[in-house]
Amino acid sequence: MPHTNELSSSPETNEMTSALSGLALHSEAGAPxxxxxxxxxxxxxxxxxxxxxxxxxNTKTSGSGNFQSCTDRPLRAGIYAPTPAFFDPTTEELDLxxxxxxxxxxxxxxxxxxxTQGSNGEAVHLSHAERRIVTAATREALDDAGFRxxxxxxxxxxxxxxxxxxxxxxxxxSGGDYAMILPPSYYKSLYTAQSQFEFFTTVxxxxxxxxxxxxxxxxxxGIDLDSDVVTKLSKHPNIVGCKLxxxxxxxxxxVANAAPSGFMTLGGSSDxxxxxxxxxxxxxxxxxxxxxxxxxxxxxxxxAAGRMDEAEKMQAVVGRGDWGAIKGGVVGTKACLQAHFxxxxxxxxxxxxxxxxxxxxxxxxxxxxxxxxxxxxNGSREEDIHYDKKNEYPQLVDxxxxxx
Length: 404
What we know:
Elements: H1 11-21, E1 78-82, H2 96-108, E2 113-116, H3 128-144, E3 152-155, H4 161-173, E4 178-181, H5 193-206, E5 211-215, H6 227-234, E6 239-244, H7 249-258, E7 264-267, H8 273-278, E8 283-285, H9 293-304, H10 308-341, H11 356-365, H12 367-377, H13 394-403
Helix pairs in contact: 1-3, 2-3, 3-4, 4-5, 6-7, 9-10, 10-11, 10-12, 10-13
């Protein structure tokens, strides 16, 4: 069982914790969703028998060097959503009903996968037990709503190799299919390029789930993995993709065209979805998807259909909306969800709670985008074109006319 200080006093959270305790890292219980067939094939002499995985009796990778699939849910090209963690506004306990509802809303919007414990998911504010609970609730909600084939990627970044591997095992037993990992950064001045390479290689050797590299300099003291490092790591059989939130589309293009076939090179923000696809990327993991999944997905779909004029105009509206999300971060995203959809709440302290004035500013930042989302959700009908907003948003009205 987790330590006492990892438990929640919420009855529903405690119930979920009890259900997960049989899948705790040091237990003998198996993970029921593990697939029996291999995904990456046999790779000789790559499994590092360092002893890390000896702690996890039934989720470790094969000691023979064979990386076995822990999921039958492949990553597909498209749009992924990094979901927020939701909390009770008074107690800050996990709000699991909202977690489930939001996951299903996004899945119905056409995305191809979800990410838990990303930057939007306030991973740094969650205990290990809470991370497992959120991932399990997300997986359960998707399965119950008929989205059993949708993969869940789990943020597993930590400062040590040991804890990162522990989180990867946690991801597996909680229902996650892949792990997304930031480079360690606390001792930045002491790390070398080789340190980072060895970190990802060791974690990949020991992780029971395939991993994605998460390159987000803003979250890791400015550490920015270059295209040489990412490309070299892409050759590892248990490293299957990367999320490049650095916004460097030149780097993205180099990685996408040098990595092995099937490697998922993903942009890290919705404001450069089209640029990502043109450069050879497979899609985007973007926080804005939480607010307007259909609009974000349609940039991808229009590009895939060869409808470049509409794709460019859609990208422009999405990009303007994403600027609001970038400025406001998870605080702005939750404020928008609360204002427009009636749920979202606040981040955990010490994240600030926006004033009424600031919340109104966040709402205004997303207005054009949400008008487009409304239009798309209604079926892109002529009677729903926002002619009454033509003076404020002429490009929106032009786009809606093109989409009829």
